[in-house]
């Protein structure tokens, strides 16, 4: 009887792992068809006979993004939305440009692990483990260093140099998603009740209202 339960448990674990990431391709490719009226978990495939080389091509990742904003960074995404050929392949990438002392603010990718490499500059990076430990894992990265941010954990990057910095990151989903913590908490539509946030952050309601006004 115990062996049956063990086998059943292993099967459940295997199934949960199998369904925890993007669907595996069942053909050579499944180029996304954004114009399809059909709604599925992912993106509908384009007719393979209509697929062209351009469906697998993205140009312009060598171009620096505009970092003239409040956080001093810019993320250029290459997901299935920009590169249809990524559909069902379970991978995407981003270019992150940083102004001097700019940050990529605390955020999370609900559907992907991120592996980042520094191309230019020095970055302070880190992620926070889940409750109840909430341990900060942090490191200073130099040019050529690689760092991984586990799926779903809050993480950040900060340029700690006087010059511009550049990083490239790969993500383990065609559509990793991003939730920027400050924007989600203080810039939701409609606003989260100020009393909820005041109690959560242990601050006065006026402080919450002031922060919400910035988003």
SSE arrangement:
Blueprint (H helix, E strand, L loop, with lengths): L1 H17 L54 E6 L13 E7 L4 E6 L5 E7 L2 E6 L7 E6 L4 E4 L5 E5 L5 E7 L7 E2 H6 L7 H8 L3 H8 L3
Antiparallel strand pairs: 1-2, 2-9, 3-8, 3-10, 4-7, 4-9, 5-6, 5-8
Fold and architecture overview:
By secondary structure, the chain is of the alpha+beta class. Helix content is about 20%, strand content about 25%. The protein has helices at about 1-20, 180-185, 195-200, 205-210, and strands at about 75-80, 90-100, 105-110, 115-120, 125-130, 135-140, 145-150, 155-160, 165-170, 180. Strands 1-2-9-4-7 form a five-stranded antiparallel beta sheet, with no helix packed on it. A five-stranded antiparallel beta sheet has the order 6-5-8-3-10. A hairpin with a 7-residue loop joins strand 5 (about 125-130) and strand 6. The longest helix has 17 residues, at about 1-20. It starts with a helix and ends with a helix. Residues about 5-20 have low confidence and may be disordered. Its main location: secreted. Belongs to the germin family. Keywords: Apoplast, Disulfide bond, Manganese, Metal-binding, Secreted, Signal. One of its GO terms (molecular function) is manganese ion binding. This is Germin-like protein.
């Amino acid at each position: 009887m115990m062996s049956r339960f063990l086998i059943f448990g292993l099967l459940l674990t295997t199934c949960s792992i199998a369904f925890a990431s993007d669907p595996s391709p069942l053909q050579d490719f499944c180029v996304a068809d954004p114009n399809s009226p059909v709604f599925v978990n992912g993106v509908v495939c384009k007719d393979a006979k209509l697929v062209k080389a351009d469906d697998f091509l993205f140009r312009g990742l060598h171009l620096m993004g505009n970092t003239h904003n409040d956080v001093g960074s810019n993320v250029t995404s290459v997901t299935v939305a920009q590169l249809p050929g990524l559909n069902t392949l379970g991978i995407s990438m981003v270019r992150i440009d940083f102004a001097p002392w700019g940050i990529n603010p605390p955020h999370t990718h609900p559907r992907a692990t991120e592996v980042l490499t520094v191309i230019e500059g020095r970055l302070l990076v880190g992620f926070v483990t889940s409750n109840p430990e909430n341990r900060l894992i942090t490191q200073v990265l130099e040019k050529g260093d690689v760092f991984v941010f586990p799926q779903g954990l809050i993480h950040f990057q900060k340029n700690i140099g006087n010059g511009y910095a550049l990083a490239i990151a790969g993500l383990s989903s065609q559509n990793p998603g991003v939730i920027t913590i400050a924007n989600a908490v203080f810039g939701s539509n409609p606003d989260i009740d100020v009393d909820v946030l005041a109690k959560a952050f242990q601050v006065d309601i006026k402080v919450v209202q002031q922060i919400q006004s910035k988003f």
